[in-house]
């Protein structure tokens, strides 16, 4: 995951700082040296690192910090605030036109994920009740138009294109006229990219900008490219006056320096982030939440939002009734497990929970899979059972266990392990059910709390 190495190093630095009790200027100096090295290794721009460390140090060596009862926590708070400010301070929203359509130009280098991001942005806006139109204005890359059309079909979004040979400026201008007649209130123009920045590309983009006067010009940047992403952002910003960036592949094995450098170098906010190749909506970028995750403070708000967006309320109510009647089956277990999977990998979920960074490391050290292998195995075992077996595990004898193991590509021991765990979980639920009577929820938890399994 992005920032994993940076996060571990910063948390280790602050752990040592906490062990000092009352801090001295030397303690702060040593901690700031470690912070500086961690940021540079994460591929953050050198000038950005220098300014960041200077600001933190100036605030951290103030008497009000060194003389507090918990000076280490005060330093961490300062680092958190400065990290948040470095990435933009607060959520930066889309500029929507007072009179539709809102025109959004998507720009960037080839391979950054611009076309996919255009589709994901369209999906996000569609979920918000908008009627987006995707525009295929990349006339150079082979099959670029077809790629956007296939994407539009999958996402059930309309795509505007014109016959081969039509220039990009004409396509962009005509899409605006088309949108008015088809009640599209947002136009997302997927422009051409290049393998490197060149004047021909920039001139075409400037011509499109002049022709349609976009309300947003969003640069798509691949987080995996590290420091080069900042150079790309600077070049595009100089030529087009960007209004924001979309950082893609944020769940990849990247050092993350781009996210910490782009806003500081270009003064252009990161508005959205994209995770992987799955066709899911773009995620708004919250600087404060990202800072919290980097420093191991978690991101509970994002976790709650993910749960609200992915959990089916009707299914949750059905499950509650089944729990009360002691009718919870392996089918229900599988259904709940699939809902949890919608939140992302366990790796991602743990990163959002405060204080779970250490647990995640311990699980990694113990070679416990966090990327879903064990969950996929459980799914395969349950799907290899008959409906009767899933409804009543007591009928699963030795021969049935062998058949289930063979059908799921697992061992009999794996089947036995799952059945034992499920049996123990049901016993636990029975005990919890007794505690629920008259309380409207699980003991010690809010009344509307639903267990995600």
Description:
It is a single chain. This protein is α/β, with parallel strands linked by helices and 453 residues long. Helix content is 57%, strand content 8%. It has 21 helices and eight strands. Strands 3-2-4-1-5-6-7-8 form an eight-stranded mixed beta sheet, with helices on both faces. Helix 11 links the parallel strand 6 and strand 7. Helix 18 packs across helix 20. The longest helix has 25 residues. It starts with a helix and ends in a 17-residue tail after the last helix. The C terminus is likely disordered.
Topology:
Elements: H1 4-18, H2 25-41, H3 46-60, H4 63-66, H5 71-86, E1 102-107, H6 114-127, E2 132-137, H7 144-155, E3 159-160, H8 168-181, E4 186-191, H9 199-212, E5 216-222, H10 227-240, E6 244-248, H11 257-266, E7 270-273, E8 283-284, H12 287-294, H13 300-310, H14 313-324, H15 330-341, H16 346-352, H17 357-365, H18 373-383, H19 387-391, H20 398-408, H21 412-436
Parallel strand pairs: 1-4, 1-5, 2-3, 2-4, 5-6, 6-7
Antiparallel strand pairs: 7-8
Helix pairs in contact: 1-2, 2-3, 3-5, 5-12, 6-7, 8-9, 10-11, 15-18, 18-20, 20-21
Overview in brief:
The chain is an alpha/beta fold and 453 residues long.
Query: Could you give the order of strands across the largest sheet?
Result: 3-2-4-1-5-6-7-8
Nearest-integer average pLDDT: 79
Gyration radius from CA atoms, angstroms? 26 Å
Query: In percent terms, what proportion of residues is strand?
Result: 5-15%
Run of helices and strands: HHHHHEHEHEHEHEHEHEEHHHHHHHHHH
Query: Which stretches are low in confidence, meaning pLDDT under 50 for 5 or more residues running?
Result: 366-370, 438-453
Termini gap: 25 Å
Helix content: 55-70%
Largest sheet: 8 strands, mixed
Helical element count?
21
Structural class: alpha/beta
Shape: flat
Per DSSP E runs of 2 or more residues, the count of β-strands stands at 8
């Amino acid at each position: 995951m992005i920032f994993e190495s940076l996060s571990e190093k910063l948390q280790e630095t602050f752990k040592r700082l906490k062990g000092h009790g009352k801090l001295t200027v030397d303690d702060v100096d040593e901690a700031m040296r470690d912070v500086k090295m961690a940021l540079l290794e994460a591929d953050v721009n050198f000038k950005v690192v220098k300014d960041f460390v200077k600001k933190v140090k100036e605030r951290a060596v103030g008497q009000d910090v060194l003389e507090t009862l918990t000076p280490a926590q005060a330093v961490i708070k300062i680092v958190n605030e400065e990290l948040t400010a470095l990435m933009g301070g607060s959520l930066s929203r889309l500029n929507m036109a007072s009179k539709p359509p809102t025109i959004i130009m998507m720009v960037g280098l080839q391979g950054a994920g611009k076309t996919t991001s255009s589709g994901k942005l369209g999906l996000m806006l569609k979920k918000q009740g908008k009627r987006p139109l995707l525009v295929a204005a990349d006339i150079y890359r082979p099959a670029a138009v077809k790629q956007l059309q296939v994407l539009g079909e999958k996402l059930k979004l309309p795509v505007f294109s014109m016959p081969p040979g039509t220039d990009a400026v004409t396509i962009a201008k005509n899409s605006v006229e088309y949108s008015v007649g088809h009640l599209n209130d947002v136009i997302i123009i997927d422009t051409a990219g290049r393998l490197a920045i060149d004047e021909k590309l920039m001139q075409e983009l400037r011509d499109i900008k002049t022709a349609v006067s976009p309300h947003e010009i969003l640069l798509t940047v691949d987080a995996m490219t590290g420091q080069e992403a900042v150079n790309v952002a600077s070049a595009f910003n100089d030529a087009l006056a960007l209004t924001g960036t979309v950082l893609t592949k944020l769940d990849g094995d990247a050092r993350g320096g781009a996210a910490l450098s782009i806003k500081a170098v270009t003064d252009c906010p990161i508005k959205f982030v994209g995770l992987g190749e799955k066709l899911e909506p773009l995620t708004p970028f919250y600087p404060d939440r990202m800072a919290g995750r980097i420093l191991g403070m978690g991101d509970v708000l994002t976790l709650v939002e993910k749960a609200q967006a992915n959990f089916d309320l009707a299914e949750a109510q059905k499950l509650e009734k089944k729990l009360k009647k002691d009718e919870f089956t392996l089918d229900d277990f599988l259904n709940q497990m699939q809902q949890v999977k919608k939140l992302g990998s366990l790796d991602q979920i743990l990163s959002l929970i405060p204080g779970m960074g250490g647990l995640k490391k311990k699980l990694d050290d113990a070679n416990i899979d966090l990327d879903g292998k064990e969950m996929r195995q459980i799914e395969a075992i349950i799907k290899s059972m008959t409906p009767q077996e899933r409804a009543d595990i007591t009928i699963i004898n030795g021969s049935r266990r062998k058949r289930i193991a063979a059908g799921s590509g697992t061992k009999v021991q794996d089947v036995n392990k799952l059945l034992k765990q499920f049996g123990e979980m049901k016993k636990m639920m029975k005990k919890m059910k007794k505690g629920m009577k008259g309380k409207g929820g699980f003991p010690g938890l809010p009344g509307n709390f639903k267990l995600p399994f």
